[in-house]
Amino acid sequence: MANIFTSSIGKKLIMSITGAFLVLFLTFHMLMNGALVFSDEAYDAIVNFLGANWYALIGTVILAAGVVIHFIYAIILTLQNRRARGKIRYAEAKREPNVEWTSKNMFVLGLVVICGLLLHLYNFWYNMQWTEIMGEHTNSLGMGPKDGAVMVRDLFSHLGYVIVYLVWLVGIWFHLTHGVWSMLHTVGWNSKVWMKRLRCISYILATLIVGGFALTVIIIYIQGLM
Ligand code: HEM
């Protein structure tokens, strides 16, 4: 019997399940960060409700597992596809106009997403939750680990960081448009009629999530100038 961890469709299913979970997290995270545009107090209340409490720590561990599994299976699937296509990889890709740029570059885009994520985790997670776990009262920025609003506003007062985050978000947008489509496709919505609809749903979802993050970054930068 084909095993979910080893069969090709099983691996894609694992990518889809972890991907769906990460999309859910992103939606929540985007809405939560959006609150900062309206109120520093509301934002700090949410951040401190999560903080380094046991439920937030469990959430972080599950989230990290989701990212790691998604990444490992992405590597396995990419290597497997390359092996299967062998030397005719490039010639074949040229002949097939339907293979989109995003689809072909999913792995590279994933790397952009991961590099941005590492920087992001250093910017916030390390200076907040990690500092709290370590029982320290000030982080590497000289702020308290619970000063969420001040920390985010400080980072996005630098135009360089705004640009780096926007580039990262563009990478996430491309990754999501193909990822959401691929996820829905894997779970069985692959009829001719649904293909176009799925493509449309993926673009809308990716644009709403990434647009929300991008707007937050830009508005916070503008608020900092006023
Ligand atoms: C407007 C843009 C963003 C802002 C202002 C922001 C802010 C923050 C802050 C303040 C934290 C630490 C506090 C917390 O854990 O809630 C955090 C953690 C985190 N962020 Fe973001 N974020 C943004 C975009 C993103 C994006 C686009 C991703 C993913 C691609 C992401 C992934 C994460 C992850 C994985 C954590 C660690 C969560 C945990 O500790 O459980 N963030 N972010």
Instruction: Give the distance, in angstroms, between the N- and C-terminal Cα atoms.
Output: 64 Å
Percent helix range = over 70%
Number of strands: 0
Shape: globular
Output the CATH homologous superfamily: Fumarate reductase/succinate dehydrogenase, transmembrane subunit
- Give the C-level CATH assignment: Mainly Alpha
CATH architecture: Up-down Bundle
Tally of DSSP helical segments: 9
What small molecules are bound in this structure?
protoporphyrin IX containing FE
- Please indicate the percent range of residues in DSSP E strands (runs of 2 or more): under 5%
Number of domains: 1
Oligomer: single chain
Q: How many whole angstroms does the radius of gyration measure?
A: 20 Å
How would you characterize the largest beta sheet? none
Which spans of ≥5 residues are poorly predicted at pLDDT below 50?
A: 91-96
Overall pLDDT: 87
Order of helices and strands: HHHHHHHHH
Give the gist of this structure.
This protein has 226 residues and is mainly α. It contains nine helices and no strands.
Describe the protein in words.
The longest helix has 34 residues, at 192-225. The chain has nine helices and no strands. The protein is 81% helix and 0% strand. It has one domain (8-225): 3 helical TM bundles of succinate and fumarate reductases, CATH 1.20.1300.10. It is mainly α. α1 (8-38) crosses α3 (54-85) and α6 (106-133) packs across α8. The site of protoporphyrin IX containing FE has 20 residues, from α1, α2, α3, α6 and α7.
